[in-house]
């Protein structure tokens, strides 16, 4: 049914020489072959452009756009606005796709009908060597997702969604204003929220994206990510004041997640600025997060040490962690 549908894939890339080749190989290796692959070189100063052009020379589906450095939102916008397809997917230059991602998402979009404007899937976290280091607990939200999208970015990253062009146009694309305010990072979440206002979402419940989280990538600056989230939160409340409670809960959820993530990744140096920002903007939330996500776990850890407690992983999780992301590393 969807085999012949052209899908445009936009790959924003800034100084991505370490990972872009592998990313493009995962895109070019999709089982759905009717692709237009647009790499947007966002003013890179390394060999990103040369790598992209090598792929363009080897595969007629790939073409390369160049622009002065303007940030990921502007790069994504340049790509989808230049695309020819009514279906647009995005993948960051350090992430990977499983081979059936586009095929299965396109089938889900058609099966969902004309009201579906976005299809997402689950993901795994991968390291610099593309080994799986964390499993995303997959959400099951579909249809009208306004309430859950106010409370969390359950899609989780910018490489999981396939969207209708109409939905992108109505939402105004990615908001480059976050970059100019020094609070970039949640452009994808803001877009998903705007799409959810008028379109339904569909889900392919499989881990089809390898989401790479490294110490120097955009999402690693947790204080800036929280500032970005707060700006998204402000727009949510301005547009939907009747749902302010859910949006505020979303900030609390995200702040707690950032603190937990900083602790689990041993980035404790980010805790003080993160909590200070939260304290200046939402003091009550800062106190709650400090108690529930810093002090209580610390006390609990001390008690577990005294009891010599051990933590065991479930069999499916143990099988996946440490394996390279790929077709045989993705399980339903």
Question: In short, what is this structure?
Answer:
45% of the residues lie in helices and 17% in strands.
Word description of this protein:
With 332 residues, the chain is α/β, with parallel strands linked by helices. 45% of the residues lie in helices and 17% in strands. Strands 1, 2, 3, 4, 5, 6, 7, 8 and 9 form a 9-stranded mixed β-sheet that branches. β2 (35-42), α2 (48-58) and β3 (62-67) form a beta-alpha-beta unit. The chain starts with 6 loop residues before the first strand and ends in a 12-residue tail after the last helix.
List the helices and strands and how they pair.
Layout: E1 7-13, H1 20-28, E2 35-42, H2 48-58, E3 62-67, H3 72-82, E4 87-90, E5 96-97, H4 101-112, E6 116-126, E7 132-135, H5 146-151, E8 162-164, H6 165-171, H7 177-180, H8 187-196, E9 200-212, H9 222-239, H10 244-264, H11 271-281, H12 283-307, H13 315-320
Parallel strand pairs: 1-2, 1-4, 2-3, 6-9
Antiparallel strand pairs: 4-8, 5-9, 6-7, 6-8
Helix pairs in contact: 8-9, 9-10, 9-11, 10-11, 10-12, 11-12
| Poorly predicted runs | 306-312
Radius of gyration: 20 Å
Q: How many helical stretches?
A: 13
User: Quick one: overall form?
Assistant: globular
State the main characteristics.
332 residues, alpha/beta, nine-stranded mixed beta sheet, 13 helices, 45% helix, 17% strand
């Amino acid at each position: 049914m969807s085999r012949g549908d052209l899908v445009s894939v936009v790959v924003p890339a800034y100084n991505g020489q370490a990972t872009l080749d592998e990313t493009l190989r995962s895109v070019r290796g999709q089982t759905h072959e009717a692709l237009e692959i647009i790499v947007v070189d966002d003013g890179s100063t390394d060999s990103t452009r040369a790598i992209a052009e090598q792929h363009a020379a080897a595969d007629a589906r790939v073409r390369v756009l160049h622009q002065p450095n303007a940030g990921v939102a502007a790069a994504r916008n340049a790509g989808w606005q230049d695309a020819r397809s009514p279906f647009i997917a995005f993948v960051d230059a350090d992430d990977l796709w499983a081979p059936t991602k586009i095929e299965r998402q396109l089938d889900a979009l058609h099966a969902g009908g004309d009201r579906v404007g976005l299809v997402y899937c689950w993901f795994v976290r991968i390291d610099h060597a593309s080994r799986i280091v964390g499993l995303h607990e997959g959400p099951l939200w579909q249809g009208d997702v306004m309430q859950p999208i106010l409370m969390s970015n359950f899609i989780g990253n910018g490489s999981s969604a396939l969207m209708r062009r109409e939905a992108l146009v109505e939402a105004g694309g990615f908001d480059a204003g976050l970059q100019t305010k020094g609070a970039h990072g949640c452009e994808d979440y803001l877009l998903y929220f705007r799409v959810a206002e008028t379109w339904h979402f569909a889900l392919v419940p499989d881990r089809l994206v390898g989401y790479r989280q490294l110490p120097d990538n955009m999402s690693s600056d947790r204080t800036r990510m929280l500032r970005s989230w707060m700006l998204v939160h402000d727009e949510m409340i301005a547009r939907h004041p009747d749902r302010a409670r859910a949006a505020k809960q979303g900030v609390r959820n995200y702040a707690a997640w950032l603190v937990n993530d900083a602790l689990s990744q041993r980035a404790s140096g980010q805790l003080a600025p993160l909590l200070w920002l939260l304290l200046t903007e939402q003091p009550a939330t800062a106190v709650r997060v400090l108690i529930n996500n810093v002090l209580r776990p610390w006390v609990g850890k001390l008690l577990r040490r005294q009891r010599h407690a051990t933590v065991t992983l479930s069999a499916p999780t143990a099988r996946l962690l440490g394996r390279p992301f790929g077709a045989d590393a993705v399980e339903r």
